[in-house]
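Weekly structure sync, notes
Attendees: PL (lead), two postdocs, one rotation student
Agenda item 3: pending single-chain targets
PL asked that the sequence for the first pending target be pasted directly into the notes so everyone works from the same version. It is reproduced below exactly as submitted, 277 residues in total.
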Amino acid sequence: MNPIQDYRDFYANYIVRSEGSSNQELIAAFATVQREHFVGKGPWPISVGSGYMTTISDDPRLLYQDILVGLATDRGINNGQPSLHARCISACEPRSGESVVHIGAGTGYYTAILATLVGVSGSVAAYEIENDLADRARSNLSHLPNVTVLNASATEVPVPMADVIYVNAGATHPPPSWLDALNLGGRLVFPLTPNDGPGCMLMVTRLGDTRYAASAIMRVAFIPCVGARDDASSKTLAVALGAQSHNTVRSLRRGTPPDNSAWCVGKDWWLSTSEAE
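Predicted structure, written out during the meeting:
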């Protein structure tokens, strides 16, 4: 049987290249970070449809596939699909020395990927609202000096200024505090999702004090982000998703009245099909 690093290398190349990227730093990060370190002891529950099936053994080689591994199956919380995260992390392109805020860190697997990309000269502040998962993340990430784990809601406490804010829980709208925390050139990537059905992974890039480019990366479904959801925004978003392609989004506007380029209009924010002004 091949050594486990062969499986990690194949997995890393597959999930990154299958999403249209040849980013060598991202491939190296996925090949280096050991997934088994973050998902508990095997055999592991694997998400299938509306339930789970169990791996045939506790051989960690089984984890190096594009699969969802259950972390807290009673709450439907999984270690997210690697190819989805490969595409989204590739889109926001965390770079050496940058500061990252990771919201919905789970047990820390993708936090470790982000920390590897920004290196020792960068930093990652990881927020996880579930007490048990935050404890596991803190333990799992203790070997990384550039990571801080906070057992808190990133909608209820201030988040630090960041070059990348990477969110792994669905929001019906972009909280103003997240937009305000972006450095110039900073990228916010979050699942913009209604209460029912999938939404899209939206990337917002701060171009100026009040100028934001925006684009949808892909269709996604995520567990809800506590504190970043309301029914009115959900209904408006669901209508927009049903009426037009998310691929036409080009900018996010704040504090201005919507015009005929509006794709979705929320409270004090709206998405436009026109480029940022």
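Discussion points:
- Helices lie at 4-17, 24-32, 82-92, 109-118, 131-140, 176-180, 231-243.
- The chain is about 25% helix and 25% strand.
Action: rotation student to compare against the earlier draft before next sync.
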